[in-house]
């Protein structure tokens, strides 16, 4: 029983340790700065996302740039 408890405690801890955001590369930072200069940082709305079709790559890249530049 003690072995099972140990596994039950350690497994989530190990999995959560892998959930980290990687640091941006200098190329990503420069790309985000260029995007900010060209179009700003507002994330445009997406009708496909509103219909439950998931996020499009443009919105994902905008969100990542917001994380990088903050």
In angstroms, what is the radius of gyration?
19 Å
Largest sheet: none
Low-confidence runs of at least 5 consecutive residues:
none
Residue share in helices? 55-70%
Structural class: mainly alpha
Order of helices and strands: HHHH
Strand content bin: under 5%
Distance linking N and C termini? 47 Å
Number of E-state strands: 0
The total of helices stands at: 4
Could you say which overall geometry the principal axes of the C-alpha atoms support? elongated
Describe this protein's structure.
The chain has 70 residues and is mainly α. The chain is built from 4 helices and no strands. α2 packs across α4 (57-69). The mean pLDDT is 79.
Chart the SSEs and their pairings.
Elements: H1 2-17, H2 26-39, H3 47-50, H4 57-69
Please supply descriptive tags for the structure shown above.
mainly alpha; 70 residues; 67% helix; elongated
In a few lines, what is going on in this structure?
By secondary structure, the protein is mainly alpha-helical.
């Amino acid at each position: 029983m003690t072995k099972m408890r140990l596994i039950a405690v350690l497994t989530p801890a190990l999995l959560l340790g892998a959930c980290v955001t990687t640091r941006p590369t200098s190329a990503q930072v420069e790309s985000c700065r260029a995007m900010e200069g060209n179009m700003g940082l507002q994330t445009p709305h997406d009708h496909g996302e509103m219909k439950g079709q998931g996020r499009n790559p443009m919105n994902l890249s905008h969100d990542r740039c917001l994380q990088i530049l903050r």
